[in-house]
Design a protein that fits this description.
The complex is a heterodimer of chains A (97) and B (297). Chain A is mainly beta and 97 residues long. Chain A is built from no helices and 10 strands. In chain A, strands 1, 2, 3, 4, 5, 6, 7, 8, 9 and 10 form a 10-stranded mixed β-sheet that branches. In chain A, a hairpin with a 5-residue loop joins strand 9 and strand 10. Chain B is of the alpha/beta class and 297 residues long. Chain B contains 6 helices and 6 strands. In chain B, helix 1 (2-60) runs antiparallel to helix 6 (219-296) and helix 4 packs across helix 6 (219-296). The longest helix of chain B has 78 residues, at 219-296. Chain B starts with a helix and ends with a helix. The chains are: A mainly beta (97), B alpha/beta (297). Chains A and B meet through strand 1, strand 4 and strand 7 of A and helix 1, strand 6 and helix 6 of B.
Chain lengths: 97, 297
């Protein structure tokens, strides 16, 4: 099955990248879910939480306070002003510096 | 004679203590430069993603957005000058200011007014000394820039850009800063941020052609949200490169200053030894002459 290539970047550092089955986010119009094969899209992210379901491993959630994301041939680039990564255990860290 | 030796001793002592300062500053610059370069590298994914997105929106949609269309007549320009807070970095700040001066001549020749936004105490001192006006200045932390400052600068210039000329707004935005090419090459450059010039550069290869995007919520709203971020990220990137350049320039300047101090110490030591020897020789010949005069009588 096709999978998504996800990349999350914040203004001054790289946050996360990897393969995923699904990405769920919130735009200014409402929630949106991205599955492999989605049409190219450029959307504005609203403040809130993003959920990513990686191919292996537990679901990852990222808190962003605005930004945008683009989808283009199964490549999802999430550009956030400020992103906070939470792993499955619920502990928060600011990503890899 | 004795006075001469004392003068040389003083010079040696002061040069030695200066060399200590130069060495310390060189070491500090060296240790920070790696981090500064890493920050430039880690801001790249964001800058690339945002540039790609802006090109995507601007290239395929025939939209009339104030930020992308060039006004017929440019009457006033905003110039952001990025210098350092501290000196002892060789010609780093002077190079940027020279570039800014050239831009000033160019813009004035085209009949444009200029508004200045300054970063760093060196630029502020330069403008204050010449009694020139500037709109705003940001100082502190030029060698470790924060995104917050870049956002403030971006907001300030965008507000000026959005204002009409009649009300004191500007029609274009330039940034003068230093681009970090390598440890030995840093080039002061002028970049025009607005109106946008980004679109043409992007469509380089055929396989890199941008797909037809859908926009959510609307093209114009997307552009509204993207462009300030794009400007901020460009300014932030300029800051980071400037910081890396500043540290590299300082490291080089301090290295040559330390080397020169070493040479001077060597020279003064030689002169001091010669002076001491001359004094001893003179004393000896005086004693011999005295003894000769006594035995002759």
């Amino acid at each position: 099955m096709a999978q998504l290539e996800v990349e999350i970047v914040a203004a001054d550092h790289f946050v996360w990248s990897g393969a995923a089955k699904m990405v769920k986010g919130r735009t200014s119009d409402g929630e949106i879910g991205i599955l492999p094969g989605h049409a190219p899209l450029l959307a504005i992210l609203a403040e809130g939480e993003l959920a990513i379901e990686p191919v292996d491993g537990a679901r990852i959630s990222v808190t962003v306070d605005g930004g945008f994301f683009s989808v283009d041939s199964d490549r999802v680039v999430i550009v956030a002003d400020n992103a906070q990564l939470h792993d499955a255990a619920g502990s928060a860290n600011t990503g890899i510096r | 004679m004795g006075a001469q030796i004392r003068v040389y001793r003083q010079k040696i002592t002061s040069t030695t203590s200066m060399r200590k300062i130069f060495k310390a500053m060189e070491l500090i610059a060296t240790s920070r430069i790696g981090k500064a370069r890493a920050r430039v590298a880690s801001s790249l994914p964001y800058a690339n993603a945002i540039t790609r997105a802006v090109s995507a929106v601007a290239s395929q949609s025939e939209i009339d957005h104030p930020l992308t269309t060039e006004p017929e007549q440019i009457r006033r320009a905003a110039v952001v000058i990025v210098t350092s807070d501290r000196g002892l970095a060789g010609s780093y700040s002077a190079g940027v200011l020279k570039q800014a001066e050239a831009l000033r001549e160019l813009l004035t020749a085209e009949g444009k007014e200029i508004e200045y936004y300054l970063i760093g105490r060196k630029a502020q001192a330069y403008f204050d000394f010449r009694g020139r006006e500037y709109v705003r200045v940001w100082t502190g932390g030029t060698d470790a820039p924060e995104f917050k400052t870049a956002r403030e600068v971006g907001a300030a210039v965008l507000t000026a850009f959005a204002t009409d000329y009649e009300k004191g707004g500007v029609d274009e935005i330039h940034v003068v800063s230093t681009r970090f090419q390598s440890m030995v090459v840093q080039v002061p450059t002028v970049v025009r941020l607005l109106p946008l010039e980004v679109v043409e550069e992007q469509a380089a290869s055929a396989e890199d052609l941008l797909p037809l995007y859908e926009f959510e919520p609307e093209t114009e709203k997307v552009l509204d949200a993207l462009l300030p971020r794009y400007i901020e990220s460009r300014i932030f990137n300029a800051f980071l490169q400037a910081a890396a350049s500043e540290l590299a320039a300082r490291q080089r300047a301090m290295k040559s200053a330390g080397d020169n101090a070493t040479d001077l110490i060597k020279k003064y030591t030689r002169l001091r030894n010669t002076a001491r020897q001359a004094e001893i020789t003179q004393e000896l010949s005086e004693i011999v002459a005295g003894a000769d005069a006594l035995s002759a009588s």
